[in-house]
Amino acid sequence: MEKPQMMKAVLTVKEKIYLTPHYIRVILEGEDLSIYEAANVGDNNKIVIPKDKLQKIQLPDGPPKGASDFYIRTYTMRYLDVNKNEMAIDFVMHGETGPASSWAIHAEKGDELGVLMKAKRKPIVQPADWYLLIGDHTALPVISTILENLPATTKGKVLLEVHSSEDVILLQKPAGVEIKWIFNSNPGETAPLLEAFQTEEIPDMESKFVYAAAEYHTIKEIQESLRSNPKLERKDWYAFSYWKYGIAEDASAMERRAISK
C-alpha cells in the first residue's frame, strides 16, 4: 500500500483569538500553506514547537520523533482556507507546564510553527442516521468539525466535557442533535464525562455510530462498554485517547496508540 503524502511547512502566526478562558485559536499563514489542500479539516497534525522562539524551525525528513531544540505535539486542524491563506489550530490553555499551551499563550504575530500532515481523505466518522459523540476538552475541535459536516437530518447526542460554563461555545449542528455540556475543573483527576456516558442508552436502530475521544483511562472504560454492548457491531464505533493524565504526550504515545481504535 502506498504511503500517504507528507505535507509539511513552517507557518507563521497571523492572529490569535481567545475563544473562551481555556481555548485559544491561532490563525496561521504562510507561502506554502496551499500544500495542505489535500488534508481533511478535523484531522490530527503534528506541530513542531521551538523551545526558543528565536530558534529557526527545522522540519524532520521522516516521521517526527522530537528533537532537543523542539517539541513535537499532536493537534487538530480546526479549519483551512487556502484562498485566504489561513489555517486555524485551537489550543487548550492549561498553564505554562505544557509546551503547546505555553507557546499559544505567548504566541505573537510572526512567530513560527512547523505543521506536518498526511494527505488523506478518510472520513472521521462513518455515515449514520444517529450519532453519539463523546469528548473532553481536547476533543472539542474535532467534535465541532464533525458537527459542522453532518447532514441536516442527523439525529443524536453530544457529551462534551470542558473546564467550566465559561468554556461553552455555540456550535453549528443539525437541529436534531442535542449537546450536553459537562464541567470539570480537574480533568484527569475526576471523570464526569465517563459517568455521563454510562447513563446514555444506545438506540436499537440499524444506522448508528459512536465516536469518543478523551483521556486514556476514560477511553479505556468507554471502549469496554462499547465492545460489550449487544446493540453495537465493531464497525459502529471508534474511540481514541488524546492524552493520559499525569504523563506527557510523547511519553504516553505507545500506550494510547495501543487502545485507540
Structure at a glance:
With 261 residues, the protein is of the alpha/beta class. The protein has helices at 99-106, 140-149, 192-198, 216-228, 249-259, and strands at 6-20, 23-29, 44-50, 70-81, 86-92, 112-118, 130-135, 155-162, 176-183, 208-215, 237-243.
Mind explaining what this structure looks like?
This protein has 261 residues and is α/β, with parallel strands linked by helices. 19% of the residues lie in helices and 35% in strands. The strands form two sheets. A six-stranded antiparallel beta barrel has the order 1-2-5-4-3-6. Helix 3 (192-198) runs parallel beside helix 4. The chain folds into two domains: 6-118, Beta Barrel (Elongation Factor Tu (Ef-tu), domain 3), CATH 2.40.30.10; 130-243, Rossmann fold (3-Layer(aba) Sandwich), CATH 3.40.50. It is globular and about 55 Å long. The chain has helices at 99-106, 140-149, 192-198, 216-228, 249-259; strands at residues 6-20, 23-29, 44-50, 70-81, 86-92, 112-118, 130-135, 155-162, 176-183, 208-215, 237-243. The chain starts with 5 loop residues before the first strand and ends with a helix. It is built from five helices and eleven strands.
